[in-house]
Structure formats: structure tokens, C-alpha cells
Amino acid sequence: MDVKGRVALVTGSSRGIGKATALMLAEKGCNVVVNYVKNREKAEMVSEEARRLGVDSMALKADVSKYDEVEKMVEAILSRFGRIDILVNNAGIISRHVNLLEVGEDEWDELIDVNLKGAFNCCKAVVPHMIRQRFGRIVNVSSIAGRAGGVAGAHYAASKAGLIGLTFSLASELARYGITVNAVAPTAVETDMLEALRGSLDWIVSVTPLGRIAKPEEVAHAILFLIENDFITAEVVDVNGGRYPS
Questions:
Q1: Is there a domain that residue 109 lies in?
Q2: Candidates 67, 156, 177, 244; catalytic one
């Protein structure tokens, strides 16, 4: 599929993987919506950078864990562009607590609400429009933690494993409408969220055959591949430098 002229919503795209994905889509001629929840200035900068690439772009604030905010964001996109073709569920958070006994109920709820419920909310708001179009591309940003647990805690792993389950279920449900649903599962990535894993980075690098962590653009490239392919659905692409669970 040629993404030129399409409209993409990339959640959490003021930085990191989301920013790299939004700009990579813009380079291909896709109009992009830059979603943010806190840093308006950075989001506007990404949107402006996209416009300099010759596409239309807007930055919209919405906490994806709150359906009413997601619904208003989708309404604003439809008002501006008239359609939504691509949804990249990238918004996510990580916790400073990793041991089960240190994780409080509020911390568990917050992580699940943003990382998993946020993707559910965005899909629920966007999918009806994709069904009417008989076309859509959804990519969920999961993690190697969703496949193998790891150093970020059970609550983080559960949220990312939930995204994989959501991917498989929606792919089956929506295929008849021309909508593909896939996921990527990266290892640690060079973003500002990496600070929470600082104490484990040496270990992560040591168990990664390629001997380093990922760059945001490398994950974005995998996302773009899944968007452009018309016959891949219910797939999870591991972007992990060869690091697989033993």
C-alpha cells in the first residue's frame, strides 16, 4: 500500500518511537496527527517538521487512557481530514518499580490504563470509521517484555502481553473489512523512557546478539513495513537484535 495522501494517527508521537514513526510516514507523503498528553511544544515541533516534508499535520492533546478525550481527538481529526486510515498505538509509560511486592494497585492500574486500555480506547474510537471505509491499518507497539517478561516489572509485561492478545483478536475480527492489525515487539530503545531501565542496560546489551539496544528509527521502519503490506495481519514483528527468550 502506498501511504501517500493517507491520514495517520500516531499516539505518543512527540518523542521516541512515535516521533520517528510520524516523520517516517510524513516522508512517504502521509498526513500525520501527532498525539501528546503533556509536552505540547515538542508535539508542535514534530508536526511542524512533518509539514516541512510537504504533508498536512496537526498536534492534538489527548490522554489515551480516557475514552472521552480519545473520542474528541478522533472527531477533530475527522473534521480536519475527513478520514483516518492508519492508527499506531504507541503511547506508553514505564514504572520505576519492578518488583511485584513494591508495585502498588494504583501503579498497576495506571500502567494498564495507558499501555493497554489506551490502545483499546483508540481502536474503539477509530475502527468504526475504518469499517465504513472498508480499509485500515492498525499497529500496536508492544515489547519483548510482552513475550518474555524481563526487567521492567510484571505490570509492564502484562500490559504489553495484553497488546499482543488485542492484536490477534482484532486482526481476526476486522479482516473482513479490509483492516489489518499487527504489532511490533522491540527490545530496549534509545528514548528518554530508557532512564527507568538504566541499571539493567548492560545486561540487556549482553544478552542481545547484535550487542546494542535499538534506535527509534529501526522500530519505526518495522511499523512502516506492516502498514505498507496489504497481506500481513495478526503478526508480531520482533525488533530485538536477535534477543529471544531461551
A1: yes
A2: 156
Residue 172 located in a structural domain = yes
Q: Which residues contact 28 (CB under 8 A, 6 or more apart)?
A: 2, 3, 4, 224
Q: Closest Cα partner for 100 from 166, 174, 153, 62? A: 153
Burial-class residue 26 by CB neighbours within 10 Å (0-12, 13-18, 19+).
buried
For residue 158, tell me if it sits in a domain: yes
Number of domains into which the chain is organized = 1
In a domain, 245, yes or no: no
Please state at what angle helix 16-27 crosses helix 216-228, rounded to 10 degrees: 50
Host domain of residue 115? 7-239
Cα gap 88→72, rounded to integer Å: 17
DSSP-derived letter for residue 200 is G
Buried (b) or exposed (e) across 205-222, using 16+ Cβ within 10 A? beebeeeebbbbbbbbeb
Specify the CATH number for the domain of residue 158. Answer: 3.40.50.720
DSSP-assigned states of every residue in 168-186:
HHHHHHHGGGTEEEEEEEE
Per-residue pLDDT of the chain (246 residues; tens, 9 = 90+): 999 999 999 999 999 999 999 999 999 999 999 999 999 999 999 999 999 999 999 999 999 999 999 999 999 999 999 999 999 999 999 987 788 999 999 999 999 999 999 999 999 999 999 999 999 999 999 999 999 987 889 999 999 999 999 999 999 999 999 999 999 999 989 988 777 666 778 888 998 999 999 999 999 999 999 999 999 999 999 999 998 765
In one letter, which amino acid is 13?
S
Q: Is 67 considered catalytic here? A: no
User: If DSSP codes are grouped into helix, strand and coil, which group holds residue 9?
Assistant: strand
